[in-house]
TrEMBL record:
GO terms for biological process: sucrose catabolic process. GO terms for cellular component: cytoplasm. Residues 332-487 form the Glycosyl hydrolase family 32 C-terminal domain. Belongs to the glycosyl hydrolase 32 family. This is Glycoside hydrolase family 32 protein. It comes from Anaerobacillus alkaliphilus. The keyword Hydrolase applies. One of its GO terms (molecular function) is sucrose alpha-glucosidase activity. Transmembrane segments: none annotated. The keyword Hydrolase applies. InterPro entries: ConA-like_dom_sf, Glyco_hydro_32, Glyco_hydro_32_C, Glyco_hydro_32_N, Glyco_hydro_beta-prop_sf.
């Protein structure tokens, strides 16, 4: 049964072409057009979540009631006489410590300005974040004579009753304190000889979490992203668990310990939301779903970049007594579920194709057990030619996400060189547990995998054909038991849900075709939404100029053959001709 519990009315209907471009995320945040980078100023205030983000040195802005459906706002912070507005944070000045708000509360943004060297500046809003005014005394912390001095994260420290700022300073972070967000003084520095130093530290965050849900036992988490470098083949991120007394951070682990935040390639500049109400009690963050090796080189248009799904954070004690950060999707995401398909107690050996469920935007969760097997996994976004693989190798004891055959193999990186985009990403996983719990989120151009309730997380971009929707379970070298496995198609967060059995869109594996005379190629088509795939929906195929190409089709696919030099279009429509898709075809000489 198809349904949707969302109550938010959107501006666009299910069959509108809004946010339907090739690779466009359907339930991840992406900007309408242009570049998207670091999340900035994440904050909750008076019933609204604010998501600011980098857009060519500006703060772009969006607002949400539920962290899922976002309404774009005008640019919040543009360039001014102090240059760009680089990454930073926002707080609610509840007691008007700044004096900006006439004794009331208001929002203060803390960001990095650039003229005269990176420095920290502030702006404020008296109208719930709709408009912003720069503080006339900017910058509030001048550049101390170093190159990297940016990305301030500010929060109120209850015990010492002051504002604390943590700011990136090359391969370390520096803490400052203030009573009013304007006058700041140096507190301490952390990072020398601690963790990974393979590249500059950026976008710090500092917050406390209960350990194992015990509010009487809290630890502080210091998170930093690590810039582009050869050792990690791009950018990455790390975190530290320890104590913070309002002055300095003390790492609980040995200095050489490196705790990786996300084992995929595309999770950077994570920031948590400020001022989420205590009755909610969650610490929620999201990150820029990209990598500094190829920040604006993806094959997408007219937008570039997206955010991860929001995640709830917790600290849990491991079997060896160490404390680790866990990440799980926010509970609100279940509101996007359109239907459910379940498998129970299935034994698999070799390949097992899922025939009753397919899709390109869906969620799955499952538990797999085994006694003697070399490898187990699930293949998603599958076709005869491509697939993305999630699994566990018990011989090497690694969980992995493999995009080597996902579609896009190489990409031109920001240095103009070829980068091996199609790669495999791994994390250590002890095979003696003989059980694997997976939860996955697949979108038009991404995959996010949560292992064992978020103990390990993989975030990866994938650029695969729009019609790659197959799903397959598999084992190698033995049998495995599927204890439970549930699939859920997910509604778009940008358009209203479709009516029952309504075809909203047709997608084709290629948008443009270039063939030679006498050369053949195959086009594949599918209807949207995903849950209509299994209804046997037939497609009609037409050629605008049959003198240039000839076409033969069997409903879901068509073979075209070049006849003479020229250009034309193939038109694909549903049986009732309610929606259509056009594919440009260019034929050249042999």
């Amino acid at each position: 049964m198809v349904g949707c519990s969302q109550t938010i009315s959107l501006d666009y209907e299910a069959n509108d072409d809004y946010y339907t471009e090739r690779y466009r995320p359907q339930y991840h945040f992406s900007t309408l057009a242009g570049n998207l980078a670091d999340p900035n100023g994440l904050i909750y205030f008076k019933g609204e979540y604010h998501l600011f983000h980098q857009k060519n040195g500006h703060w772009a802005h969006a607002i949400s009631k539920d962290l899922l459906h976002w309404e774009h706002q005008p640019i919040a912070l543009e360039h001014d006489e102090l240059g760009q507005a680089l990454s930073g944070s926002a707080v609610v000045d509840w007691n008007d410590s700044t004096g900006f708000f006439d004794g009331k509360d208001g929002l203060v943004a803390i960001y990095t300005s650039t003229v005269g060297g990176e420095a920290q500046s502030i702006a404020y809003s008296k109208d719930r974040g709709r408009t912003w005014e720069r503080y006339e005394g900017n910058p509030v912390i001048k550049n101390p004579g170093i190159k990297d001095f940016r990305d301030p994260k500010v929060f109120w420290h209850d015990e010492t009753e002051k504002w604390v700022m943590v700011v990136s300073t090359d391969k370390s972070v520096t803490f400052f304190g203030s009573d009013n967000l304007i006058n700041w003084h140096y507190l301490s520095r952390f990072g020398d000889g601690q963790g990974s130093h393979v590249a500059v530290w950026e976008c710090p965050d500092l917050f406390r979490l209960a350990v194992d849900g015990d509010e009487g036992n809290e630890k502080w988490v210091l998170h930093v992203s690590i810039g582009d470098n050869n050792k990690t083949n791009g950018s990455t991120a790390q975190y530290f668990v320890g104590e913070f007394d309002g002055e300095q951070f003390i790492n609980d682990h040995s200095p050489e310990t490196v705790l990786i935040t996300d084992y995929g390639q595309d999770f950077y500049a994570a920031q948590s939301f400020s001022d989420i109400p205590k009755k909610d009690g969650r610490r929620i963050w999201l990150a820029w779903m990209a990598n500094w090796r190829y920040p604006y080189q993806s094959p997408t248009d007219p937008w570039m970049g997206a955010m991860s799904i929001p995640r709830e954070l917790s600290l849990k004690t491991m079997e060896d007594g160490s404390v680790r950060l866990f990440q799980e999707p926010i509970k609100e995401i279940k509101k996007l579920r359109a239907n459910e398909y379940s498998i129970k107690e299935l034994e698999i050996e070799g390949d097992y194709r899922i025939t009753d469920f397919s899709g390109t935007t869906f969620e799955f969760e499952g538990i797999i057990q085994w006694e003697d097997v070399e490898e187990i996994g699930i293949r998603v976004r599958q076709s005869d030619e491509e697939e993305t693989v999630v699994g566990l190798n018990t011989i090497t004891e690694t969980a992995f996400v493999d995009r080597t055959n996902s579609g896009l193999d190489r990409i031109i990186d920001r240095n103009g060189e070829f980068f091996q985009f199609g790669s495999r990403y791994e994390a250590n996983y002890p095979a003696f547990k003989k059980q694997l719990k997976l939860r996955g989120f697949i979108d038009e151009s991404s995959i996010e995998i949560f292992v064992n309730d978020g103990e390990l997380v993989f975030t990866n971009l994938i650029y695969t054909n729009s019609t790659n929707s197959g799903i397959e379970l598999y084992t190698k070298g033995g049998k495995a038991k599927v204890v439970s496995l549930n699939f859920f198609h997910l509604h778009s967060t940008w358009r209203n849900p479709p009516k029952e059995d309504e075809i909203t869109q047709i997608v084709v594996n290629e948008d443009r075709i270039h063939i030679k005379v006498e050369e053949e190629t195959t086009l594949k088509g599918q209807v949207k939404p995903d849950w209509l795939h299994g209804n046997g929906a037939q497609l009609l195929w037409f050629v605008e100029d049959p003198e240039i190409i000839e076409l033969a089709n069997d409903g879901s696919s068509a073979i075209i053959k070049g006849k003479k030099v020229g250009t034309t279009q193939v038109v694909v429509t549903d049986i009732n001709q309610t929606v259509e898709k056009k594919v440009s075809v260019r034929v050249t000489s042999k």
